[in-house]
Design the sequence.
């Protein structure tokens, strides 16, 4: 019968106390890791716990450590697929609320959903040079370019623009806080604070008309209220005329994508798992 994970680790004396030496580490041999016959693919349903999977697959719930080892999971909680309740709790704890996680931008990615296909003549004659980088050629049987369509590359940038405002805080108002969303007016422009003091505030992930003659900036969480003395565009990753080629990804979508990927795990065949556990004990005890 397989034993619990830490029973395989050596016991040492530290500060006159007998304890398990958790500084030891093992990994699965790369050859074994790449061998498809060693593993079964498994899709988790309803965020099933690792010990339940181990009980059903290995007839031993303490073998849950094998699932973590095989799938490279370091954090047995957040590295595992979360239930809907736990996922919502995670978002609230990390971002303040589920609503905020949907409003704040994690990054921008190239929009690959447009399936429009252009002829070579149209591409050469009507697509501006600065926008041609968003298209890829399609080839016919003779390996000649037959048309162009949108690139499918997985390219991301961490923000579209960064603005700096020189400000004058209103009397009896608190300062801006890092990470909060702010609204600039007129124009109802929005952004996320990345730096703030009593004189300057910098924002990223901007939406709305930041080119307007903005006179006021307000914080949503801090309730800070400031008059704008001057505005400076510090950096641009996505120019306005290229914005249509990009999609903002919220922190909600970012976290949900990670959680969905955690549904698919590999299970090591019980026969190989027993041998792996035996070899692991020999290595750790040596």
Sequence:
């Amino acid at each position: 019968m397989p034993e619990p994970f830490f029973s395989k680790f050596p016991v040492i004396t530290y500060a006159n106390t007998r304890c398990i030496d958790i500084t030891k580490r093992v990994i699965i041999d790369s050859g074994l890791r790449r061998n498809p016959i060693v593993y079964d693919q498994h899709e988790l349903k309803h965020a099933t716990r690792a010990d339940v999977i181990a009980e059903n697959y290995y007839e031993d719930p303490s073998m849950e450590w094998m699932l973590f080892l095989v799938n490279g999971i370091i954090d047995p909680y957040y590295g595992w697929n979360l239930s809907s309740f736990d996922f919502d709790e995670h978002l609230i704890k990390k971002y303040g609320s589920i609503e905020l996680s949907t409003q704040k931008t994690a990054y921008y990615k190239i929009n690959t959903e447009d399936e429009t296909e252009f002829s070579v003549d149209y591409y050469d004659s009507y697509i501006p040079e600065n926008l041609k980088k968003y298209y890829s050629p399609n080839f016919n049987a003779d390996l000649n370019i037959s048309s162009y369509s949108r690139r499918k590359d997985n390219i991301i940038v961490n923000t579209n623009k960064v603005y700096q405002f020189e400000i004058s805080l209103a009397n009896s108002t608190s300062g801006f806080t890092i990470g909060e969303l702010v609204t600039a007016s007129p124009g109802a422009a929005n952004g996320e604070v990345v730096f703030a003091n009593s004189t300057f505030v910098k924002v990223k992930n901007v939406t709305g008309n930041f080119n307007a003659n903005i006179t006021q900036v307000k914080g949503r969480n801090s309730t800070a209220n400031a008059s704008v003395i001057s505005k400076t565009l510090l950096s641009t990753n996505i120019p306005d005329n290229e914005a249509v080629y990009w999609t903002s990804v919220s922190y909600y979508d970012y976290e949900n994508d990670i959680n969905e990927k955690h549904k698919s795990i590999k299970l090591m065949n019980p026969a190989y798992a027993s041998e792996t556990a035996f070899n692991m004990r020999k290595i750790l005890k040596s």
Remarks:
- The longest strand covers residues 225-236.
- The longest helix spans residues 270-285.
- Residues 161-236 form one domain.
